[in-house]
Design a protein that fits this description.
heterodimer; A: 226 residues; Rossmann fold; six-stranded mixed sheet; four-stranded antiparallel sheet; B: mainly alpha; Arc Repressor Mutant, subunit A; three-stranded antiparallel sheet; 9 helices; disordered N terminus
C-alpha cells in the first residue's frame, strides 16, 4: 500500500479546562522513525495517545493505513492496537507477576497463539535485545535497562507496523539509554516498523529520521518529510 | 554552523598539535611519518594532518628544546630523522595534561547576537532559533550514525560532540521560551 502509514489532522483535545492539543498534525511514513519533542506539558504525550487510538480527540482525525480510527469501535481499536501497534513506556510497565519471557509472550498469547510457539518467539526477541539471560526472572529482579529492553522485545514480538515509544529512556542512565535506543531503532528498521518516539532529550531524538516539535498543543515540523 | 571537522578540531588539533606530538613521543622515539600516521589514526578522523604541518610543528618543538633528533637514518629518499622527547618536553606535556581547558562559550555568543539583532530588526527570533535547532539535530543524527558504525574511539569522540550539541540545544530551547522577556529588555 502506498501513502503515509499514519496521519493526524488538526487534532484538538482538552482535559477539563486544560487544552492539551490545539491543532496538532503529523504524518508518519512506513518504516520511518519520527521524534516528537517538546517541553513538559506541551501536549506530546497526548498526541501519541491520540495517534495510537488510546485517547479520542475532541476534533480532528487520525488515519492509520487509510482507516479512520474515530470510525472504529473500542473493541476494533483494541484489536488494531494489539495487531499493528507496539508500545514502550518510560517505566517498562511489565506485569510484575510474570517472568520476562511470559511478559514478552503475552501479546502473542492474547492473540491466541499457543504457549510453546509464543514463548519460542519471545525467547528469540529477548536474545535479539541482548537480555536472554533474564528470561526466567520477574521484572522486579532485573535492572532498569534490562527491563526496558524486555519492554522493547514485547513491543516488537508481534511485528507491529508502528511502535509508540513514550520517553523510553527517561528512567535510564546515559549508557543504558543509548543501548535501548540503538536496539529499538535497529530492530524497528530491520522489521520495517515505523517508530513514533516521544522524548524531550535531543540525544534520544538523534536516533530518529525526523523531528516534530510540539508547542502549546500545536505541531511544528522543522524538517518536512522528504 | 557545525561540521564534524569543527568538532575534531575542538577535541584535539585546536588544543595543541605540538603537545599531542609530545605525548606520542613520550612512549617511544618515532619518525615524523610515524607521528603523522599515529596522529591521524587516533585523533585526525576527518582531518588528517598535512605533512607541512607535521614538520613545521616538529621544527618548533626542536627550537623550543622539547624534542631532539635522536638519530638520522638513510632512507630510499631523503634521510629520516628519529625524534625523541626531552626532559623539558616531558614536563611540558605533563603540565598540559594536568591543566583544565578553558570552557569556550563561542557558539552562544554568536547566536545570542543573532537573536538580539532579529528582535531589534523586527525579524522572527523564534524562526531563527528553530532553524538552528534543526541544524543542530541534523548534526546530532549524523554523529549518532557515525557512533553506531564506529569503534570505541569513534564513539567517544562522537559522544563528546553530541554532549556539546545537546548543551547548545538546551540553550536554544531556554532562549526560545524566554524570547518575550528578552524582547522587553532589548527593544527601546
Amino acid at each position: 500500500m502506498t501513502g503515509p502509514l499514519l496521519v493526524a489532522e488538526d487534532l484538538h483535545r482538552s482535559f477539563g479546562p486544560t487544552r492539551a492539543l490545539a491543532g496538532a498534525s503529523l504524518r508518519v511514513d512506513r518504516g520511518e522513525v519520527v521524534a516528537v519533542m517538546g517541553s513538559s506539558g506541551s501536549g506530546k504525550s497526548t498526541l501519541l495517545h491520540c495517534l495510537a487510538g488510546i485517547v479520542r480527540p475532541d476534533s480532528g482525525r487520525v488515519r492509520f493505513a487509510g482507516r479512520d480510527l474515530g470510525a472504529l469501535t473500542d473493541s476494533e481499536r483494541s484489536a488494531l492496537r494489539r495487531a499493528a501497534f507496539g508500545f514502550v513506556f518510560q517505566f517498562g510497565q511489565l506485569v510484575p507477576e510474570l517472568t520476562c519471557l511470559e511478559n514478552v509472550a503475552l501479546p502473542l498469547r492474547l492473540d491466541r497463539l499457543g504457549r510453546r510457539e509464543a514463548e519460542r518467539r519471545a525467547a528469540e526477541w529477548l536474545d535479539r535485545l541482548e537480555v536472554a539471560e533474564v528470561a526466567g526472572k520477574r521484572p522486579g529482579e532485573v535492572s532498569g535497562g534490562q527491563g526496558q529492553r524486555v519492554a522493547v522485545a514485547r513491543a516488537l514480538v508481534t511485528r507491529p507496523q508502528v511502535v509508540f515509544a513514550d520517553e523510553p529512556t527517561g528512567a535510564l542512565d546515559s549508557l543504558n539509554g543509548e543501548r535501548v535506543m540503538r536496539l529499538l531503532t535497529g530492530a524497528a528498521r530491520e522489521t520495517g516498523a515505523a517508530v513514533v518516539l516521544v522524548t524531550h532529550e535531543a540525544r534520544v531524538a538523534a536516533y530518529s529520521d525526523r523531528e516534530v516539535v510540539v508547542r502549546d498543543g500545536r505541531t511544528r515540523d522543522l524538517e518536512p518529510a522528504a | 554552523m557545525y561540521t564534524f571537522g569543527v568538532y575534531a578540531m575542538c577535541i584535539v588539533p585546536g588544543m595543541s598539535i605540538g603537545q599531542t606530538f609530545l605525548g606520542l613521543l613520550e612512549a617511544t622515539p618515532r619518525h615524523g611519518y610515524d607521528i603523522k600516521r599515529l596522529y591521524d589514526e587516533r585523533f585526525g578522523h576527518a582531518r588528517p594532518l598535512a605533512y607541512g604541518q607535521v614538520y613545521a610543528t616538529l621544527s618548533r618543538l626542536l627550537r623550543s628544546g622539547l624534542v631532539e633528533v635522536e638519530a638520522v637514518e638513510p632512507g630510499e629518499g631523503p634521510e629520516r630523522k628519529r625524534y625523541a622527547i626531552t626532559e623539558a618536553g616531558v614536563t611540558d606535556v605533563a603540565g598540559w595534561l594536568a591543566r583544565a581547558e578553558k570552557p569556550e562559550p563561542y557558539l552562544q555568543s554568536t547566536l545570542y547576537t543573532k537573536v538580539v539583532l532579529a528582535l531589534l530588526t523586527g525579524r522572527s527570533a523564534a524562526d531563527l532559533l528553530d532553524v538552528q535547532r534543526a541544524e543542530h539535530l541534523r548534526m546530532m543524527r549524523e554523529l549518532t550514525r557515525r557512533k553506531r558504525d564506529g569503534d570505541l574511539a569513534e564513539q567517544l569522540i562522537c559522544d563528546h560532540a553530541l554532549f556539546h550539541l545537546e548543551a547548545d540545544l538546551r540553550w536554544l530551547e531556554l532562549t526560545a521560551a524566554r524570547l518575550d522577556e528578552l524582547a522587553k529588555t532589548v527593544l527601546p
